[in-house]
Amino acid sequence: MSGATRVLVLNSGSSSVKYQLLDMRGHRRLATGLVERIGEEAPRLVHTPAGGRRRERRERIAGHEQALRLVAEELDADGLGLGSAELAGVGHRVVHGGRSFTEPTLVTDEVLAEIERLVPLAPLHNPANLTGIRTALALNPRLPQVAVFDTAFHATIPEHAARYAIDAATADAHLIRRYGFHGTSHAYVSRRAAALLGREVAEVNVIVLHLGNGASASAVAGGRCVETSMGLTPLEGLVMGTRSGDLDPAVVFHLARRGGLTVDEIDTLLNKRSGLLGLCGANDMREVLDRAERGEAAARLAFDVYIHRLRKYLGAYVAVLGRVDAVVFTAGVGENSAPVRAAAIEGLEVLGLAVDPGRNAARSGEPRLISPEYARVAVAVVPTDEELEIATQTYALVSPEQSA
Ligand SMILES: Nc1ncnc2c1ncn2[C@@H]1O[C@H](COP(=O)(O)OP(=O)(O)O)[C@@H](O)[C@H]1O
Ligand SMILES: CC(=O)OP(=O)(O)O
Ligand SMILES: [Mg+2]
């Protein structure tokens, strides 16, 4: 392999693509960007080269392939395109790896076929991820492509936590079990949390609360994930921006039989029109908090439902782990919302948990403690960096001699 030291990371969501180009010498970001509202009204691309001016494009963007071609054009314009000899490879976030993929994987035809086979388990995500890989390959067939799976870190969850209590043969026939998602973030953040405590990863038990648009909790014992809140798909668990999280599965039958909704309509309802949005009409936690402060009852209730669910999981994961060294908040809401963190931990002194108001209110892009000096369990904020983690894993695969 040549002296190529750059990695492009693509995180293709159902209607967006986030990307970063990193130089792995010193982990420097050379460009970052976002394409949003793909296939919807008013799509746009925002591209920011390091040290350069932010550029924006607003044009029709019908699908992910077109989105990626525009990204490639923007990178080309900065001399950073997919044809560049300095590019060592492309790392793709792939949401569902089923039980087939527990490690970052160099993409081959067989790997593509397996990701395709898993589409029914992640219909909103895997097709976009596949298009990302195929388009990058079309733009430069010689460039190594690496798939980094959201599910991989959760492969260590023991069987008793991964199995749903349904007919075993049916579960096996349809690959039904808990897979878990956001694994790249849970892995990265739990490692950074151990470093913040000045301890070895193998020594600490951590609960990670990844609260973004999608949200999930995980229990990590000595660096191995033992439980997580998302399941077969990223719908289970916590209340999210637009997803319901946990509910009685009979709600689905009831909506089909009594409400006259089709399965696809129920799927859309639970994934896109539920959560905070469904409860109060806003999916952004900042707006929910603003409206709640102005006395809007629906927004107050949405916040309370969100926090109640979070606290239930927190308590459950204390029981799962037995001993907890740290509770860690991460992702958009977890990193930025002091009110969410305060409400999640309030009154949990019995579990050794407390938040220092001054520390909680402070702002910083660095990992930090927000628990008081005396607390038995650390409460921390650790910014996640899925892109850096994907780039690091990609570089280790495509350039092992240099990344070592
Ligand atoms: N200051 C803040 N207070 C509350 N929520 C915030 C704040 N800043 C960002 N967020 C929330 O973070 C969410 C995005 O989180 P992020 O981790 O970037 O999500 P994703 O990667 O799933 O798109 C937004 O929906 C918004 O609600
Ligand atoms: C898997 C998942 O929920 O991802 P996101 O939070 O990016 O929607
Ligand atoms: Mg995210």
Verbal overview:
- By secondary structure, the chain is of the alpha/beta class.
- The strands form two sheets. It has an eight-stranded mixed β-sheet, sandwiched between helices.
- The protein has helices at about 65-75, 110-115, 125-140, 160, 170-175, 185-195, 250-255, 265-270, 275-280, 285-295, 295-320, 330-335, 340-345, 355-360, 385-400, 400-404; strands spanning about 5-10, 15-25, 30-35, 45-50, 55, 85-95, 105, 145-150, 205-210, 215-220, 225-230, 325-330, 370, 380.
- The model has no long low-confidence stretch (mean pLDDT about 95).
- Bound molecules: adenosine-5'-diphosphate, acetylphosphate and magnesium ion.
- Keywords: ATP-binding, Cytoplasm, Kinase, Magnesium, Metal-binding, Nucleotide-binding, Transferase.
- It is found in: Cytoplasm.
- Homodimer.
- It catalyses: acetate + ATP = acetyl phosphate + ADP.
- Listing every helix as H and every strand as E from the N terminus to the C terminus, the arrangement reads EEEEEHEEHHEHHHEEEHHHHHEHHHEEHH
The number of strands is 14
The percent of residues in helical segments reads 25-40%
Radius of gyration, CA atoms, in whole angstroms: 21 Å
Question: Strand portion, in percent?
Answer: 15-25%
Binding site for substrate: 93
Binding site for Mg(2+): 11, 386
Pathway: Metabolic intermediate biosynthesis; acetyl-CoA biosynthesis; acetyl-CoA from acetate: step 1/2
Catalytic activity: acetate + ATP = acetyl phosphate + ADP
